[in-house]
Design brief:
Layout: E1 4-7, H1 17-35, H2 39-52, H3 58-66, H4 70-76, H5 90-98, E2 102-106, H6 111-121, E3 129-131, H7 144-154, E4 161-165, H8 168-175, E5 180-184, E6 195-197
Parallel strand pairs: 1-2, 1-4, 2-3, 4-5, 5-6
Helix pairs in contact: 1-2, 2-3
Amino acid sequence: MSRKWVFDNDGVLYNDEPIQEQFTQLFQEYMSRVLGISAIRVQSLAANLKIKHATEFSAVAFVREFGLDFSRIVKDTYLRLDLSVIRPDPVTLEVLSNLKGEKIVFTANPAAFAQYTLEYLGFLTYFNRVIGMEEVEFVPKDDQRAYRIVQELIQSSAGNIYFCDDTIRNLNAARRLGWTTIWYCPKGEHGSDHLIVRALSELLGL
C-alpha cells in the first residue's frame, strides 16, 4: 500500500512570514469595520477572546463570540492577502512532483486559504486533498482529535501516514496516534522523537 503524505502548509510548503503582518492588519481593519470599534480595541479583544474560547485563532474566537459569518471573514481577510510577497521554491515543486503516494495538505488555517496559496505557488495540482480548520471542526491542530478526523477523512491506517510539520506539539499529537512524524526544521535540531529533515528534498530518501 502506498504512503499517504500529509503536509502542513504555512511554514513548510512556503515561508509565510512575509504575509503574517499583512493578515493582522487586514483582520483588524475588517473587525473594526464590522464591530464598529477601533483597531487597537480589536487587538486587545482578540487576545481575551482567544483565551475565553480556547482557540489560537482570532477569527474563530470572534465567530464564537459574536456569531459572525466565518466564510465572510475568510473572503474579506485571508483571500485578500497580496501573495506577490511570497515565492514558490523550485525544490519544493520538484519534491512534490517526484514524491510517490497520495499527498494531502492539513492546515490549521481555512482550507480556502490553503488552496489560494497553493494555487498561486503552482503546488495545488500535486495534492489530492486540502483539509482545513473547518473540516476538523475547528479542533486545534495540537489536539489528537484533529488527527483522528483527518485519518477518517483520508481513509487510511495510522501506520501508512507520513506527516510533515514544523511545529513539535502538532507532531506529538499525530505521533500518539501512530503516524510517522517528520519535523521540518531547517535549523537542524537534534534529539527529537520525530524524523528530522532540514530540507524537503530529504523526504525523497525516506
